[in-house]
Amino acid sequence: MFSLFSRVIVCLDKSSIIKIIKLQFVTLLIGILNVVSALLIAQFVLLISGSENNIENPFFQSVSFFLNIFYPNNLLLYVSITVVSFYVLTIMLTLVLTYFNLRWIQDILVFFQKNLFNYYLEKKWLFHADNSSKDIISKIHTNTERLSGQVLLPFLDLFSSLIISIIILLAVLIVDLRVALISFIIFSSFYVFFFFFFKKKLRKSGDEITRIYPLYFKAIFDAFTSIKDVILYDKKNYFKNFFSNNLTRFREMTVIQAYLSQIPRNLIEAIFFTFLIFVVFIAIKYFNYKFSEISALIAFYGVCAIKIIPAFQKIFKSVTSINSNLSAFENIEKDLVKAKKFELKNKNDQINKKLNFNKSIRLENLSFSYPTNKQAGIFDVNIEIPFGSKVGIVGKTGSGKSTLLDIILGFISPDKGNIKVDDTIVNEHNVKYWQKNLSYVPQNFYIYEGDIASNVAFSADEKLISKEKIKSSLISSELKEFIGNENMNVGENGKKLSGGQKQRIGIARAIYRDSEIIILDEATNALDSITEKNILNNIESHETIKTILIVSHRFETLKMCDKFYFIENGKVEKFENFEDLMTKYKK
User: Fold this and answer.
1) Which of 13, 49, 331, 362 is deepest in the core (most CB within 10 A)?
2) What angle do CA 553, 586, 566 make, to 5 degrees?
3) Same structural domain for residues 188 and 55?
4) Are residues 59 and 143 in the same domain?
5) What's the domain range around 125?
6) Which has the closest alpha carbon to 521: 434, 412, 394?
7) Total structural domains within the chain
């Protein structure tokens, strides 16, 4: 358990660890106050029963003697006030501790979620190609919540309850060694038995929840992002059943975890109550004790039990919660450690640099193949794209066009060879500065829910959006119908737009960026030839766009280019004129 805690600590920042230590000092104070309250209540019972002189326990005799020194007159009044004061103070400190525990957990949750979000957002394209967005969402949202609420908070409760239990047991130990040992053996044995009895079932339910959560998100995400197909192909029942089955299974596992963790407390309370009645009965019936003679001890042990049973229950519940939700931590442990290091490393990173591009882009002896398919990729590619040129890239489906563009865009790092901008090699350290020169219009792109202006500026702060640039971008992309209506909401993923309007929003977004290089990847295939021609002319005459790369199956689109590259089976062939390209492509 403590080795697990040390693994969790590695994922935290220094300020969070300091807060944990401070909270444990408050817990220590609460434990001491609990013991003092129990002693004072015992003394109070002695006073009201009139048996303070009959008590045989030397410890209580010492407490009585001590109180009489300070309060020789009106002892009952002062003890009553002190009992209430200590009891109220204990409750207030417990509430304070509870608040700060919850506050700390929420701060940690924010820390984890922010770090993971930033970490995944900075991962390379291949990572996102190999990992489901639903899994990433589940890790950022669900696993971090389970880690903070079902692992870290129970850790705090575990330590707090341990400290309180130890202090109370030490007090009982001072009063009566045998009672302390018997109590400890009974309580600890009982909870240890139940923990190991339920351990496998609790862990299994936790693992099942970890498995189900991505499927839960998948059901929601897939159903509503493909709603037209769901309606057309009448697959509503399939998605209803898929969602319902996973949700039901998740709730079943949650109920199992909650129920099993509650069982011991109810049983131990029944056992303690029975044991207490039995002891009182035996003491009075067979040992001729008067109730007044044992009332103080009963009160003391009763108050200690009231405090220690919840503490033992919290320990049990914390251990079972940690064990049940351990898979949530294990699922993101490595990423949390990497995310923390990444965040520290990039705090002072400069992101406003821009890689100079004045001569050419050169791909030299460049090769890349996908880890899962070594036959797919590009091989021994040598390409030069001069500054100010218009380059056409042609090839059949699966030939390697997308891979080539992904390398130029910096989404993929080559296995060998280099991409040079002027005389600078693009690598993982400067790729973000190279990307500041680029605008990219893919065949399929995402339009988020918002208005026209925010989609064209692409998440730019509203205060920083230039209305003049928005208008200019809309004109250049042949979206004049939206001028004056830039605040129109486009719906989720552009549901309120036509296919051609969506594509032109993507082009407007690329133009708004004011990059020197624009890459059009089948960017006009949803447009009619007249609109396409007008947009290409507008791009060609744009004052900031100097270099154009076009990937298209429309030969009319490629006519504006002054250099061509034909890709086949990952190999690239250069053509200087359109006629030679046409001859090659039609073979």
Assistant:
1) 331
2) 60
3) yes
4) yes
5) 2-345
6) 394
7) 2
Helical (H) or strand (E) element with 421? strand 416-421
The fraction of the chain above a pLDDT of 90, given in percent, is 10
Unique residue bearing structure tokens 């990219």: 440
* Pair of tokens at residue 475: 């004109």
Paired tokens of 465: 């959006």
Looking at the predicted structure, is the pLDDT value of residue 117 above 80?
A: yes
Query: Is 70 exceeded by the pLDDT of residue 163?
Result: yes
Of the candidates 317, 345, 373, which is a domain's last residue? 345
Q: Is residue 351 part of a domain?
A: no
Q: What is the DSSP string of 286-337?
A: TS---HHHHHHHHHHHHHHHHHHHHHHHHHHHHHHHHHHTHHHHHHHHHHHH
- Nearest CA to 561 out of 574, 543, 544 is that of 574
What's the pLDDT score for residue 459? 67
Confidence bin at 267 (pLDDT 50/70/90): confident
Q: 3-state class of 390 per DSSP? A: strand
Q: How far is CA 18 from CA 22, 162, 409, in A?
A: 6, 19, 44
Sign of CA dihedral 435, 436, 439, 444: positive
Under 8 Å between Cβ of 36 and 168: no
Look at 34-43, 104-113, 372-381, 552-561 and tell me which has the smallest mean pLDDT: 34-43
**Alpha helices (runs of H) in 426-518, residue ranges in sequence order:** 431-435, 452-457, 467-476, 499-512
Task: Residue 555: give its domain's CATH number.
Answer: 3.40.50.300
User: Rounded distance, CA 39 to CA 504, Å?
Assistant: 79
317 and 180 housed in the same domain: yes
pLDDT digits (tens, 9 = 90+) for 296-315: 667 777 777 777 777 777 88
The two beta strands, 563-568 and 571-575, are antiparallel
Q: Which residues of 508-541 are buried (b: 16+ CB within 10 A; e: fewer)?
A: bbbbbbebbbbbbbbbbebbeeebbbebbebbee
Mean pLDDT to the nearest integer, 150-172: 81
What is the arithmetic mean of pLDDT over 167-176? 75
550 versus 171: which is more confidently predicted?
Answer: 550
Continuous segment of H or E residues that includes residue 86: helix 75-121
Please write the tens of the pLDDT for every residue from 303-352.
777 777 777 778 878 888 888 888 888 888 888 888 888 776 665 555 56
Does residue 454 contact residue 489 with C-beta atoms inside 8 Å? no
CA 414 to chain centroid = 31
Based on the domain organization, do 340 and 366 belong to the same domain?
Answer: no
Of the residues 300, 321, 345, which one is the last residue of a structural domain?
345
Q: What is the CATH number of the domain that holds 148?
A: 1.20.1560.10
Does position 549 have pLDDT exceeding 90, yes or no? yes
What's the pLDDT at 65?
58
247 has pLDDT over 70: yes
